[in-house]
Amino acid sequence: MDCIFCKIIAGTIPSKKVYEDDLTYAFADIDPKAPVHLLIVPKKHISSLAAIDVADTALVGHLHAIANRLAAEHTLSKGYRTVINTGADGGQTVDHLHVHLLGGRQMHWPPG
């Protein structure tokens, strides 16, 4: 498989790991858009949110629970944003489902 996130999870591409469990791997984004910008990815390769099915419901919830945990660990008590880009028009650039956790500054709306 030629998925950069799968290679990061496997350790063949280096990353700044911030969390790992049996289902997920989280690391710092290499092009951060906020003081805290982490990516939370499932270890199971799922191309995008559009590719999930009912069997993935708990996994998607787990990604969000980990985002909440990491927000607390990074002292984002004033708030944070989670984003899942889906498809080219949604801004997805890596075809592996992932949650962006952004915080440490005031977020604006609309995001862009």
Structure description:
This protein is α+β, with helices and mostly antiparallel strands. The protein has one domain (4-103): HIT-like (HIT family, subunit A, 2-Layer Sandwich), CATH 3.30.428. Helix content is 21%, strand content 22%. It is built from two helices and five strands, in the order αβββαββ. It has a five-stranded antiparallel beta sheet, with helices on one face. β1 (17-20) and β2 form a beta hairpin.
Considering the chains and any ligands shown, give keywords for the structure.
alpha+beta, five-stranded antiparallel sheet, 112 residues
Summarize the structure.
The chain is of the alpha+beta class and 112 residues long.
Provide the fold topology:
Layout: H1 4-10, E1 17-20, E2 24-28, E3 36-42, H2 57-73, E4 80-83, E5 99-103
Antiparallel strand pairs: 1-2, 2-3, 3-5, 4-5
Q: What is the CATH top level name?
A: Alpha Beta
Amino- and carboxy-terminal Cα gap = 31 Å
- CATH arch. level architecture: 2-Layer Sandwich
Total helical segments:
2
Lateral strand order in the biggest sheet: 1-2-3-5-4
Order of helices and strands: HEEEHEE
| Classification by helices and strands | alpha+beta
Q: In what range is the share of β-strand residues?
A: 15-25%
The CATH superfamily name is HIT-like
The residue fraction in helices comes out at: 10-25%
Stretches where pLDDT is under 50 for at least 5 consecutive residues are: none
Count of separate structural domains: 1
Instruction: Tell me about the largest β-sheet.
Output: 5 strands, antiparallel
